[in-house]
Amino acid sequence: MSSKEIEEWESQLSAMYDGELPQAECELVARRLSRDENLRRSWENFALIGAAMRSEQLAGHRLAPRVAAAISGREATDRSASGRAAQGASAWSRWAVPLGSAGLAASIAVLGVLGMFWLGGGSMNTFSDKAETATASTVNEIVIPSAPQNRTIVGASAMPKAVLPAPDAARTTPAGSSNVEPESYVTPPLREGGVGSAAPAFELASYVGAHSAVSAPMMRHSVISAVIATPQQAVAVVPMSEAPR
Amino acid sequence: MTARRNRLAPLWRAVLVIAWVTPAAALADDAREWLESMNRALAEKSYEGTFFYERGGVSESLCIHHRIRQGEVAERLCALDGSGREFIRLGDELSYILPDQRTILIERRPRIGGLLPSFPRFDDRTARFYRLEPIQRARSNGRDARLVTLVPLDPYRYGFRVWIDARTRLPLKSELYDRRGQVLERITFASLQVSRDIPDSTFTPGVSTEGFRRIESDRGVRLRTVSDSASIWNLRTALRGFRLTQRARHTLPGAEEPVSHLVLSDGLASVSVFIGARLPPKSAKEIAIERQIGASTAYSTFVHGHHVVVVGEVPVQTAKLIASELSPDEPGKPQSPAEPQRPAEPSSP
């Protein structure tokens, strides 16, 4: 990662902490953190450092030895050089102070936000009538949603992993997100026969898509969701492409 | 005294009737108003959320982003499980991203001058086919909500229940159910946030589309063929409350020929009828094919030699009935009174 990228990251994280980052970008930041183990470790460690510097209880969290050493060193540095900026601190180290001031609850809550993305979907069981950002004051309200009973995930493994469907070709992701996909993601295999065998589904999807544009708003989501969520074999049933034209 | 009491008795009865009827009517009107306000909120607000879509014992999580900016709609629905399919609407362009089939379907629809479209409305005529239950105060996902229930009065339509958030007027949960009360489909929001604005980057596919096959509709084809007299199709009779509300002609992605598109609505459910080219079926099994996609029905058949597809959130028997009443008008014959005098373009919400 170049220094410019690091600066952009710091800017985004800072904005997120200040509550100035739009919700959608917060999700992108969280997704990227979830994908990049090194960045995530840095984030976690500095979050914990911040909490430790405030002498808060770290229930359920153990610091890596080198992090503990870093804390000891930082505390010693602070004691010996109070009022002076720590020499040679990395770009990341300046996050220790803001994280510390944000407090353990916020830090752990932010980890909770990331945890949701690790669990897949990034859904938040929150309802708001105004734009929300993952500020220290709001993230505490975010909880991992409970799935409905008898929930079955189509085409996914039993493990709560996020599912991304890009199979083998060069992968690109939406603007603003990383090109690097986590190894733990599940990629649905391309069905036998390739696109040729799936042709009927296209046409049915086209008809339903055209219909959704004239449905009542409350019905439209239902209509589109049905196509998106319906397994291919169930959608590809009206053999329009086989019908004469 | 007795005579006076007798004279007053009808008056008292009238007062009692009014006192009994008025709250019920007011509650029904209130429910109608909540439905209207929910439709407006869904169409006119910018919001983001995730929801569970359940049907047939299967549940999937999906995300939704909906933005209104300067009168133009941007919308993205994406499957968070399984196939990873997405639906993106950007102004007049609708796209399906089908990663499991490495394909993108793109349909370009006529621009409606930035105006938000009109939608089916629950009016007095609709009330002949649904019973609107008195509104109930309810709680859903920890939010103060109103439960609005529409009960179908005949087998040609589904019932609908929706829990509407009291503050935002957006739906928290909705159910479509059949005449027996069996829930066919349920949408439960896990999160829903009204946003001031949503960045453009949100409305891009979440997966790689490099190397995907692109199947696009050709806007030009539609313009060249709009004067085709064969596009005038009508229903022979009024169908159980379903009225012809829109008429258009456009080309679907991948199709060579444009289709006539008739839209019927009973004020709640909508039905699209697509009338394609005049060609006979290849085999007997293609004469009538019916499928359920969630609570929506797709019915493919041939009418007067034309390939017809009926799609709508109605039972299959309704789709069949509508298909059976289709008839091509002869050129020069006036259109039915229920239709607009001028072909109307389908809205692009």
Task: Compile the SSE list and pairings.
The complex is a heterodimer of chains A (245) and B (349).
Chain A: H1 3-17, H2 23-35, H3 37-53, H4 65-80, H5 96-102, H6 104-119, E1 127-128, H7 194-197, H8 199-212, H9 217-229, H10 232-235
Helix pairs in contact in A: 2-6, 3-4, 3-5, 3-6, 8-9
Chain B: H1 2-44, E1 47-55, E2 58-69, E3 72-79, E4 86-90, E5 93-98, E6 103-108, E7 130-132, E8 136-140, E9 143-152, E10 159-165, E11 171-177, E12 183-194, E13 213-216, H2 219-225, E14 233-235, E15 243-250, E16 259-265, E17 270-278, E18 288-293, E19 296-303, E20 306-312, H3 316-324, E21 326-328
Parallel strand pairs in B: 6-13
Antiparallel strand pairs in B: 1-2, 1-12, 2-3, 3-4, 4-5, 5-6, 7-9, 8-9, 9-10, 10-11, 11-12, 14-21, 15-16, 16-17, 17-20, 18-19, 19-20
Describe the structure.
- The complex is a heterodimer of chains A (245) and B (349).
- Helices cover 49% and strands 1% of the residues of chain A.
- With 245 residues, chain A is mostly helical.
- The radius of gyration of chain A is 23 Å and the shape is elongated.
- The N and C termini of chain A lie far apart (54 Å).
- By secondary structure, chain B is an alpha+beta fold.
- Chain B contains three helices and 21 strands.
- In chain B, the strands form three sheets. In chain B, strands 1, 2, 3, 4, 5, 6, 7, 8, 9, 10, 11, 12 and 13 form a 13-stranded mixed sheet that branches.
- Chain B starts with a helix and ends in a 21-residue tail after the last strand.
- Classes of the chains: A mainly alpha (245), B alpha+beta (349).
- Chains A and B meet through α2, β1, α8, α9 and α10 of A and α1, β1, β2, β3 and β5 of B.
- β1 (127-128) of chain A pairs parallel with β12 (183-194) of chain B, so a sheet runs across the interface.
